[in-house]
């Protein structure tokens, strides 16, 4: 199912790298950037998430929270978050429910791995409506950070 602008964002409740459950609907009243990324400890994923880390004040000034989601375990995400000094929640979609709901799941990824999140970016506004949606088939590409920022600035 492809999520598009104007759709109500599918809710999810996922364990974080801090071993706490985080639900999208608990952030209602804030803008939220929902990022799906394939795998922790990989080059493009690290570039993407460190870019978000380095621009956190920009997003915070727009009253936006960042949630980054992969199918890695919360334990792997805890180590990855610490190693990269990431300053936003990393959520484990180990059971692939959120990735499936957002249409952000590879059938087959590198080395024949199945059920890996596609690199994707969604901007969810304060009412829970999708304002930006980008699902990339090529895992070596980065989301359009400029478009994400422009979307947030217009909210």
Write the layout of secondary structure elements.
Layout: E1 13-15, E2 21-23, E3 31-36, H1 43-54, H2 56-61, E4 64-70, H3 74-84, E5 90-92, H4 97-101, E6 120-124, E7 130-135, H5 145-153
Parallel strand pairs: 3-4, 4-5
Antiparallel strand pairs: 1-2, 3-6, 6-7
Please describe what this structure looks like.
The structure is a single chain. It is built from 5 helices and 7 strands, in the order E-E-E-H-H-E-H-E-H-E-E-H. It has a single domain (13-153), classed as 3-Layer(aba) Sandwich (Glutaredoxin), CATH 3.40.30.10. 35% of the residues are buried. Strands 5-4-3-6-7 form a 5-stranded mixed beta sheet. A hairpin with a 5-residue loop joins strand 6 (120-124) and strand 7. The protein is an alpha/beta fold and 155 residues long. The longest helix is centred in the first third of the chain and has 12 residues, at 43-54.
Query: What is the CATH architecture assignment?
Result: 3-Layer(aba) Sandwich
- Give the CATH level 1 class: Alpha Beta
What is the tally of helical segments?
A: 5
Work out the helicity level: 25-40%
- Please tally the β strands and state the result: 7
If strands are numbered along the chain, what order do they take across the biggest sheet? 5-4-3-6-7
DSSP strand content: 15-25%
Q: Roughly what is the average pLDDT, rounded to an integer?
A: 93
Distance between the termini: 25 Å
Fold-level CATH name: Glutaredoxin
Q: Major sheet, described briefly? A: 5 strands, mixed
């Amino acid at each position: 199912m492809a999520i598009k602008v104007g759709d109500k964002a599918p809710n999810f409740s996922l364990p974080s790298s801090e071993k706490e459950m985080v639900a999208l609907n608990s952030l209602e009243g804030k803008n939220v950037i929902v990022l799906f990324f394939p795998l922790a400890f990989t080059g493009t994923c690290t570039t993407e998430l460190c870019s978000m880390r380095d621009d956190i004040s920009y997003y915070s000034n727009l009253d936006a929270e960042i949630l980054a989601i992969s199918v890695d375990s919360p334990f792997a995400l805890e180590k990855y978050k610490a190693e990269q000094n990431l300053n936003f929640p990393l959520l484990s979609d180990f059971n692939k429910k959120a990735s499936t709901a957002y249409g952000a799941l590879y059938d087959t990824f590198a080395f024949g791995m199945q059920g890996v999140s596609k690199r994707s970016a969604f901007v969810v506004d304060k009412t829970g409506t999708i304002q930006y949606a980008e699902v990339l088939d090529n895992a070596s590409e980065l989301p359009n950070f400029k478009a994400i920022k422009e979307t947030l600035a217009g909210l």
